[in-house]
Design a protein that fits this description.
Elements (H helix, E strand, L loop, with lengths): L1 H22 L3 H19 L12 E4 L3 E5 L3 E3 L2 E4 L6 E4 L5 E3 L4 E4 L3 E11 L2 E12 L2 E5 L3 E3 L3 E3 L1 E5 L6 E4 L5 E3 L4 E4 L3 E11 L2 E12 L12 H16 L1 H13 L4 H10 L10 E3 H4 L1 E2 L4 E8 L5 E8 L10 E6 L6 E8 L9 E9 L2 E10 L6 E6 L5 E7 L11 E2 L2 E2 L3 E9 L1
Length: 429
C-alpha cells in the first residue's frame, strides 16, 4: 500500500511540475516538485532501500532422525535463509542410505547413516543433519514343534515392519492344517512344514516351521513278539503252571534272602524231573531281588499308549515326598548268555516330567555294561537286549530329579503318573 501511495504522489508532483513550467509562474517551485516526484518514483520502484533488515543465514531440516526399512524412500524438506541459496546433500554411508540433490532418500540396507544438508553464504558453510536408522524386512516364527492328532495351536509371528499382512501355507494339509490367523491343527500322524509369507515393497519374505504330529494312543502290534520268544514264553508258562507249588517256594526264598538265589537257580537247572523238557530261559520276575518297596509284580497293567501288558514288573510312581528311585537286583554268576525285555511308560504318565531307567551289569566290582534310557509320556514301547555272559550281577533302577513342591500329576488307581513297566524280562542260559 505504501508503494502505491508513493507512486500516485509521484504522478501528482509530475503534473504540478508540468503546470508550473508551462505557466512559468515559479521556476524554483517546478524544480523542487520535479525532485520530489523523482524521489517518489525511485522509492516506489526500490522500497527495499528503506527496509533492509539484517538476514541471518541458516538451514533447518524437517526431521532430525528417521527410522526406515530397506527399499523405503523419503523426501527431506528444508527451510533456508536466504532462500536463494543452493543446497548440497550428502550421506556418510551410501551403502545404507543414498540421497540425491533434492533431498530424496533411499534406504539400501540395514544399518545407520547421517544425511547432511549444506548451504554456503558469503563463503561460510551452514549445515543441518538427519540421523537415519535402517532395518531390513524380516519375519520369524515361534512355534511348538509337536502336536497330537486333534490338537490345535496358534503360531506366533514377529515381523519388521510390525503388523504386516501374512499369508499362511501348509506343505501337507492331510497332516497339519492352518488358517489365515496362523492357527494350526493336527490332522494325522506325520510331519508337515508351515510357511508364513509377507510381501513388502513387492518383495516376499518367508519363514518355515516343521510340525510333527503324533497320536496319543496307537493300536497294539499283534506281532510284537517273534515266534521264538512266543515259544519260549509258552514253555515257561507251562512249567510254572505244572510246578506252581515249587515256584511259590522259590519266590518266597528269593524275597527273604538274596544270597539263596544261586542255590535256587542251580536247583531249577538240575531238577529235570520237574520239567518235560529243559528250560532254557528264566523270567526275572521269579529270581529278582526287590531292593525297593516301589517295585511291583503286576499280572496286568496298561501302557501310556493303551496296550494291555501281562506279567509285568512295575517301577513304581514317584510321590511328593520322595526322589522316586526304585532298584531291582538279579544274581547271574556268569550263567546266562543274554538278557532281553520290553519297556514302556505306564498309563497316566505325567506330561511335565521325565525319568531315567538304568540297566547295569557288574563283575567283581567292575562294570561290564551300562545303558540309560530317558522316558516321558510320549515314549513308545521299546526292546532291549544285553550280552551278560561275563556278568555276575544285573541291576535295574529308575530315578528322576522331580520337583519336590509339585502337585502330583494324573492319578490312576491311586498312584501318581510316573510309573514305568517292563515285560518279557528274560534271562537266557
Amino acid at each position: 500500500m505504501f508503494v502505491i501511495i508513493l507512486l500516485f504522489l509521484g504522478i501528482f508532483l509530475t503534473i504540478i511540475t508540468i503546470i508550473l513550467a508551462v505557466n512559468k509562474q515559479s521556476t524554483a517551485g517546478a524544480i523542487v516538485s520535479a525532485i520530489f516526484a523523482l524521489l517518489a518514483y525511485f522509492v516506489s520502484l526500490y522500497p527495499s532501500i528503506f527496509n533492509q533488515e539484517k538476514t541471518e543465514p541458516n538451514i533447518v531440516l524437517n526431521s532430525k532422525s528417521l527410522s526406515m526399512i530397506s527399499t523405503d524412500e523419503y523426501d527431506l524438506k528444508t527451510i533456508i535463509s536466504p532462500d536463494n541459496c543452493e543446497i548440497k546433500w550428502s550421506s556418510d554411508n551410501t551403502a545404507i542410505v543414498t540421497v540425491d540433490n533434492r533431498g530424496h532418500l533411499k534406504a539400501i540396507n540395514e544399518g545407520n547413516a547421517t544425511i547432511t544438508a549444506t548451504i554456503v553464504y558469503k563463503s561460510v558453510e551452514y549445515t543441518d543433519i538427519c540421523n537415519v536408522t535402517v532395518n531390513n524386512p524380516t519375519i520369524n516364527l515361534g512355534a511348538a514343534s509337536m502336536l497330537h492328532v486333534g490338537e490345535t495351536d496358534i503360531l506366533s509371528v514377529a515381523t519388521i515392519p510390525e503388523n504386516a499382512s501374512i499369508n499362511w501355507n501348509s506343505s501337507n494339509l492331510d497332516i497339519v492344517s492352518v488358517n489365515d490367523a496362523g492357527k494350526i491343527k493336527g490332522i494325522s500322524e506325520g510331519t508337515a512344514t508351515i510357511t508364513a509369507t509377507m510381501i513388502y515393497n513387492n518383495v516376499s519374505y518367508s519363514a518355515d516351521c516343521a510340525i510333527d504330529v503324533k497320536t496319543f494312543i496307537e493300536e497294539s502290534d499283534k506281532n510284537i513278539n517273534d515266534n521264538i520268544e512266543s515259544d519260549l514264553q509258552e514253555t515257561i508258562t507251562s512249567e510254572i503252571e505244572q510246578n506252581s507249588d515249587e515256584q511259590e517256594t522259590i519266590a518266597s526264598e528269593i524275597e527273604q534272602n538274596s544270597d539263596e538265589q544261586e542255590t535256587i537257580i542251580s536247583e531249577i537247572e538240575q531238577n529235570s524231573d520237574l520239567q518235560e523238557c529243559e528250560i532254557n530261559t528264566i523270567s526275572i520276575r521269579d529270581v529278582a531281588w526287590l531292593d525297593d518297596e516301589r517295585i511291583y509284580k503286576d499280572d496286568y497293567a496298561t501302557t501310556m499308549r493303551g496296550e494291555e501288558w501281562s506279567d509285568c514288573i512295575r517301577f513304581g510312581s514317584s510321590n511328593i515326598n520322595s526322589d522316586g528311585t526304585s532298584v531291582l537286583r538279579v544274581v547271574c554268576d556268569k550263567k546266562f548268555s543274554k538278557f532281553t525285555a520290553e519297556i514302556a511308560p505306564q498309563e497316566g504318565f505325567d506330561k511335565t516330567e521325565t525319568v531315567t531307567i538304568c540297566i547295569y551289569g557288574g563283575t567283581d566290582d567292575q562294570q561290564t555294561f551300562k545303558e540309560e534310557f530317558q522316558i516321558d509320556y510320549s515314549t513308545k514301547s521299546f526292546k532291549v537286549e544285553f550280552d551278560i555272559s561275563n556278568t555276575e550281577e544285573l541291576y535295574f533302577w529308575k530315578f528322576g530329579n522331580y520337583n519336590q513342591g509339585r502337585i502330583a500329576g494324573q492319578f490312576i488307581n491311586g498312584y501318581t503318573g510316573m510309573g514305568v513297566l517292563m515285560r518279557d524280562a528274560v534271562l537266557y542260559k
